[in-house]
RNA sequence: GGCGCUAUGGUGUAAUUGGUUAACAUGCAGCCCUCUCAAGGCUGAGAGUACGGGUUCGAUCCCCGUUAGCGCUACCA
């Protein structure tokens, strides 16, 4: 009896896949940009593969012809590349396997595990599908109708074959056992049970011949030899249906690990329509996040390390990562749509800043280079004869930066002679004291003969200068900061002098008088 | 409506699986440092663990109920 084998299925801790090389996949559907939730799923799969010495694969689930776009596919691959999640084999495009999926469904009819359903397709109004389903379920329940009752299930083979041969359209449905229940051990959520009475005979093939999601996933996972399915928790209850298909196909069932979801601040599902660009991975790249930092931030949603360290390199992460410490409750991505400072999760911002200011210079250099290149400020000598200066300057300014964008924004005055003056800074530091009109050029004059032009030398010279003119060091330092960088805030002025250099410092001190 | 999953400061997460003044990070406030702003150091506010019942000498942890959120319930993925 088929139902008996189903009911008895309960995977032991060590199963068929335990001794095989781990093979996991990331299976996005290309219907938009790469969502941060999907990115995290990809990351967890990747980490698990690297951790276990297994393979990380990608399968593009492009079976929804209407919604899938090439542009989306491209952005998904770009996103994976940006994050550094390199896959091990050629990506699989699910649409290419439709024939195999259809054949599998037909095979199931042949051996009696599935049947043709000649009932005409139910049409659902656009956008009302969820409502329709809930309503139908409610109505059936109220009227005592068994939603599983389907006259076609018990059609004789002869009649079924005849009607099919006559050209009558049919969908293919899996025969779900009438009695018993489905069980599996989720690696995150633990023992899962679902009564077969809760599962309708699911459609494998549409009447137009197109295979449906559950069939396609299972077939492809079998074809790709997937050992562990790591995906969002929204598939937790679907898993029972998929296991039914595995059993019908008489293949081994992989292990499952479902991940908690990442929610919006109001605990609603994170969606582009409602939440905009915060959910798109490309936003983070475009706003100056370091992929290493974003990975670090992302991994903390739904997983936590055994110890309390939260900042780690990719290699440390691979070493530390495990399925055991994945959380079961959904996480909320904390941001505000009204406060620009809180445009995205604050902790993610902190982690990015932490990386910007502490990452080894050599690792950061390529990112800064491409940032400066994007605004036309990169010069090859920064990697050559002026490398020491460049490194010292970067180390000086990155201390108070949050993103890569700051190198071309706040940091512009270090790499360009044309830079904007912050109006508030000019008002506060330059216009405040009339004497600066004479003092700034005087300081420039003093600097012109100063040798060497270093942090210590400029400090000594300036302190002496201030004493001589009976003016507070702070007044001159702040005025100089605005004159040299256009800003009210920044690094210690003596370091700034040294970095900007004598020529540029003198010129900027003199030019600033026009602003006073 | 049915079924399933989840519930610890604002947010992300800990709590050796029943014994802690409920911990860490972020964010917030203050102080120190100081030429500004960060960083850093120090201090502080912020949860009695969704709510209500049990079990127990003792529950964040186990059980039941309620509530809320999420998911599934499709010839979507």
Structure notes:
- The protein contains 23 helices and 12 strands.
- The protein has 516 residues and is mostly helical.
- The protein has 4 domains: 2-259, Rossmann fold (3-Layer(aba) Sandwich), CATH 3.40.50.620; 271-358, Glutamyl-tRNA Synthetase, domain 2; 360-418; 420-515, Arc Repressor Mutant, subunit A.
- α2 links the parallel β1 and β2 (55-60).
- α2 packs across α12.
- Residues 1-13 have low confidence and may be disordered.
- The protein binds one RNA strand of 77 nucleotides through α5, β5, β7, β8 and α7.
SSE layout and pairings?
Blueprint lengths: L1 H7 L14 E4 L9 H17 L2 E6 L9 H14 L8 E2 L4 H13 L3 E4 L11 H14 L14 H9 L5 E4 L6 E6 L3 E6 L7 E3 L7 H11 L4 E5 L5 H11 L6 E5 L2 E2 L8 H4 L5 H6 L4 H9 L14 H7 L10 E2 L13 H13 L2 H14 L12 H12 L6 H4 L3 H4 L7 H8 L5 H13 L6 H15 L3 H13 L7 H8 L1 H10 L5
Parallel strand pairs: 1-2, 2-3, 9-10, 11-12
Antiparallel strand pairs: 4-5, 5-8, 6-7
This protein binds one RNA strand of 77 nucleotides through helix 5, strand 5, strand 7, strand 8 and helix 7.
* Morphology call: elongated
Task: Indicate how many domains the architecture comprises.
Answer: 4
From the 3D structure, determine the CATH topology of the largest domain.
Rossmann fold
Q: What would you report as the Rg, rounded to the nearest angstrom?
A: 32 Å
The end-to-end span amounts to 93 Å
CATH superfamily of the largest domain: HUPs
User: Low-confidence segments, ≥5 residues, pLDDT <50?
Assistant: 1-13
Biggest sheet layout: 3 strands, parallel
> What is the percentage of strand-forming residues?
5-15%
Query: What is the mean pLDDT?
Result: 91
Percent helix among the residues? 40-55%
> Count the helices. How many?
23
Number of strands: 12
Strands side by side in the biggest sheet: 1-2-3
CATH uppermost class of the largest domain: Alpha Beta
CATH structural architecture of the largest domain: 3-Layer(aba) Sandwich
Query: What structural class should be given to the helix and strand makeup?
Result: mainly alpha
Regarding quaternary structure, what we see is single chain
């Amino acid at each position: 009896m088929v139902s008996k084998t189903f009911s008895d299925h309960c995977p032991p801790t060590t199963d068929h896949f335990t001794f095989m090389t781990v093979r996991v996949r990331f299976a996005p559907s290309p219907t938009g940009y790469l969502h941060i939730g999907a990115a995290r799923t990809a990351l967890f799969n990747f980490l698990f593969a690297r951790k276990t010495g297994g393979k990380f694969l990608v399968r593009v689930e492009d079976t929804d012809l209407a919604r899938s776009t090439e542009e989306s596919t491209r952005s998904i691959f770009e996103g994976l590349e940006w994050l550094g999640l390199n896959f091990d084999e050629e990506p699989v495009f699910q649409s290419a396997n439709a024939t195999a999926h259809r054949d599998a469904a037909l095979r199931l009819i042949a051996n009696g595990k599935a049947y043709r359903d000649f009932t005409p397709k139910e049409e659902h109004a656009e956008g009302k599908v969820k409502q329709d389903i809930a309503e139908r379920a409610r109505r059936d329940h109220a009227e005592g109708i068994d939603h599983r009752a389907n006259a076609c299930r018990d059609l004789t083979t002869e009649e079924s074959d005849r009607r099919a041969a006559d050209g009558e359209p049919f969908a293919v449905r899996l025969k779900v056992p009438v009695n018993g229940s489905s069980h599996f051990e989720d690696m995150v959520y633990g023992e899962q049970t679902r009564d077969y009475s809760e599962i309708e005979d699911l459609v494998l093939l549409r009447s137009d011949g197109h295979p449906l999601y559950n069939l396609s996933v299972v077939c492809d996972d079998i074809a790709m030899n997937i050992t562990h399915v790591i995906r969002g928790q929204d598939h937790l209850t679907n898993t029972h249906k998929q296991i039914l298909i595995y059993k019908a196909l008489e293949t081994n069932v992989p292990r499952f690990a479902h991940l908690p979801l990442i929610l919006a601040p109001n605990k609603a599902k994170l969606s582009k329509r409602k939440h905009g660009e915060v959910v798109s991975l490309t936003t983070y790249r475009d706003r100056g996040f370091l992929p290493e930092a974003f990975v670090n931030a992302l991994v903390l949603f739904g997983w936590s390390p055994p110890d309390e360290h939260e900042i780690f390199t990719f290699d440390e992460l691979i070493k530390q990562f495990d399925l055991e410490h994945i959380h079961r409750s959904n996480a909320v991505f904390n941001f505000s749509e009204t406060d620009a400072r809180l445009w995205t999760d604050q902790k993610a911002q902190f982690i990015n800043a932490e990386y910007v200011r502490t990452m080894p210079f050599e690792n950061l250099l390529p990112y800064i280079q491409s940032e400066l290149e994007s605004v036309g400020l990169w010069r090859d000598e920064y990697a050559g004869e002026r490398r020491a200066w460049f490194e010292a300057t970067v180390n000086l300014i990155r201390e108070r930066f949050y993103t890569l964008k700051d190198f071309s924004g706040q940091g512009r005055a270090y790499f360009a002679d044309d830079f904007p003056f912050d109006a508030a800074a000019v008002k506060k530091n330059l216009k405040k004291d009339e004497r600066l009109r004479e003092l700034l050029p005087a300081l420039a004059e003093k600097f012109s003969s100063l040798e060497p032009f270093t942090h210590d030398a400029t400090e000594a010279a300036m302190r002496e200068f201030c004493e001589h003119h009976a003016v507070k060091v702070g007044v001159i330092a702040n005025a100089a900061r605005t004159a040299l960088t256009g800003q009210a805030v920044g690094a210690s002025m003596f370091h700034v002098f040294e970095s900007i250099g004598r020529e540029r410092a003198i010129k900027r001190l003199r030019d600033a008088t026009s602003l006073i």
